[in-house]
Write a structure and sequence with these properties.
This protein has a 7-stranded antiparallel sheet. A two-stranded antiparallel ribbon has the order 1-2. It has a two-stranded antiparallel ribbon with strand order 7-8. Helices cover about 15% and strands about 40% of the residues. It is mainly β. The two termini are about 15 Å apart. It has 3 helices and 11 strands. A hairpin with a 4-residue loop joins strand 5 and strand 6. It comes from Denticeps clupeoides.
């Protein structure tokens, strides 16, 4: 996500924490015009990249989206608020919902969803001529936003086809090919390094 403007007109005090500058995050504050924001972007794929920032926001920047495939997860959580020093909270934890996820053999494992992930998702992509199926949890925002938001969240330039459902374990379990592990590795490489 592009950086938030540091300040607007003087009317609201917000916590300020620029990306990749933790030394400035302890109790720094900034004056904003209408909204404060707390941003957390987390990508789990082999290793964890946890990027956070706080500051001013406009209404258009307030967005929450998450997709979780078990072996990889991408979360963008931008929480906006309109009172002084209200932007001091992280993204949510497990919420009790479960969906099917895929491993290197099949899609029979279950995954605990987190935060506002209230839908199960099945995503399909073509990696190097091989069809890849991923299953997991997603937010309503991702499901309603169709392919553009999910592709953006995963860092892909092309649209990934997917379908969502609401209900416990509604993204049916299904066996997958033996090459799934290699295909997941290729997809994660694309997500992380493109």
């Amino acid at each position: 996500i592009g950086g938030f403007p540091k300040a607007f007109a003087q009317s609201l005090t917000c916590y300020y924490c620029p990306p990749n500058r933790p030394s400035l995050c302890s109790n720094s504050q900034v004056i904003c015009s209408s909204l404060c924001a707390s941003v957390r972007e987390v990508i789990y794929a082999g290793s964890i990249q946890d990027l956070g920032q706080k500051g001013c926001a406009t209404k258009e920047l307030c967005y929450n989206g998450s997709v979780n495939f078990g072996v990889s997860r991408a979360t963008t959580n931008i929480q906006c608020c309109s009172s002084n020093l209200c932007n001091n909270y992280p993204a949510g934890g497990p919420n009790g919902k479960k969906c099917y996820t895929c491993n290197n053999k099949d899609c029979l494992a279950t995954l605990s969803c987190s935060g506002n992930e209230d839908h199960c998702i099945t995503a399909n992509d073509d990696v190097g001529g091989q069809k890849v199926t991923l299953k997991g949890c997603a937010t309503k925002t991702i499901c309603d936003g169709k392919a553009s938001k999910m592709s953006s969240l995963l860092g892909l330039e092309r649209a990934v086809t997917f379908k969502c459902c609401k209900g416990e374990l509604c993204n049916n379990a299904k066996r997958i090919g033996q090459s799934m592990f290699l295909l997941l590795a290729a997809l994660l490489y694309i997500v992380l390094f493109n």
